[in-house]
């Protein structure tokens, strides 16, 4: 069942973020980045179709398991977040699922960077007053500390993705984060930490994006303060 996009949801999420004892990662060996978790409205059945065939954007990445084809289908409806499919031509993390975001410029705050990247990557400009709060920092295997910034879009918005970076932008209903088969955890020989998987559409979303989305569910939707910063990434995302 979809979640209503209204002021009550906005106020509830803001209150939970304000009350949360946020985990901050200070690691001088890592660069600082930020992502925008943009909450928007959506309609059931409006899922867009990828502008390119799977083989064109997947960049050779194998599907995680049988029965999944990598498409983000049947996910819209009610309160949603914006999810991007990265272009396959990028030099790092090509063809992966991601939230709008990137590295902080000199002198920028995480909020400044998240809003700038949101505008540059998906053509959505929002003011600082739209920010509801921050989720926990997540340290990545590729050398970053990511700060997720939760932003209230105020409606449907009209994303215009930058083609050099983003293949498509989806409105994914928040209720999809609460699927009965989500989250999933698997083990890998390369790490003692559990790898988190968030089933969405016909694919699995891994950390760091998967970890951010799991905390969005636990904290913002369910009021749980469980940490996610120690959840592992799959080996393909380590570089």
UniProtKB/TrEMBL annotation:
The protein, known as: Coenzyme A pyrophosphatase
Entry similarity comment: Belongs to the Nudix hydrolase family.
Residue stretches making up the Nudix hydrolase domain: 30-196
Essential cofactor(s): Mn(2+); Mg(2+)
SUPFAM superfamilies: Nudix
Keywords, in A-Z order: Hydrolase, Magnesium, Manganese, Metal-binding
Gene Ontology molecular function, alphabetical: coenzyme A diphosphatase activity; metal ion binding
Pfam families: NUDIX
Organism from which the protein derives: Mycolicibacter senuensis
Lineage summary: Bacteria, Bacillati, Actinomycetota, Actinomycetes, Mycobacteriales
């Amino acid at each position: 069942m979809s979640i209503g996009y209204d002021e009550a949801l906005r106020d509830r999420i803001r209150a939970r973020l304000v009350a949360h004892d946020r985990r901050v990662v200070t690691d001088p060996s890592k660069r600082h980045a930020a992502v925008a978790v943009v909450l928007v409205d959506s309609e059931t059945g409006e899922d867009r179709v990828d502008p390119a065939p799977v083989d064109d954007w997947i960049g050779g990445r194998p599907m995680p398991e049988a029965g999944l084809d990598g498409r983000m289908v049947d996910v819209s409806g009610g309160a949603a977040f914006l999810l991007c499919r990265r272009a396959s031509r990028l030099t790092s993390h090509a063809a992966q699922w991601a939230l709008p975001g990137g590295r902080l410029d000199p002198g920028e705050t995480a909020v400044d960077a998240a809003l700038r990247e949101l505008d540059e990557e998906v053509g959505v400009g929002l003011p600082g007053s739209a920010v509801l709060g921050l989720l926990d920092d997540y340290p990545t295997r590729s050398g970053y500390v990511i700060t997720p910034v939760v932003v209230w879009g105020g409606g449907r918005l009209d994303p215009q993705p930058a083609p050099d970076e983003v293949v498509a932008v989806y409105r994914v209903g928040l209720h999809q984060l609460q699927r009965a088969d989500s989250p999933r955890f698997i083990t890998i020989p390369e790490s003692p930490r559990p790898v988190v998987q968030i089933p969405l559409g016909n694919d699995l979303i891994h950390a760091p994006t998967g970890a951010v989305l799991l905390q969005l569910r636990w904290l913002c939707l369910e009021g749980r303060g469980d940490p996610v910063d120690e959840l592992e990434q799959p080996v393909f995302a380590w570089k």
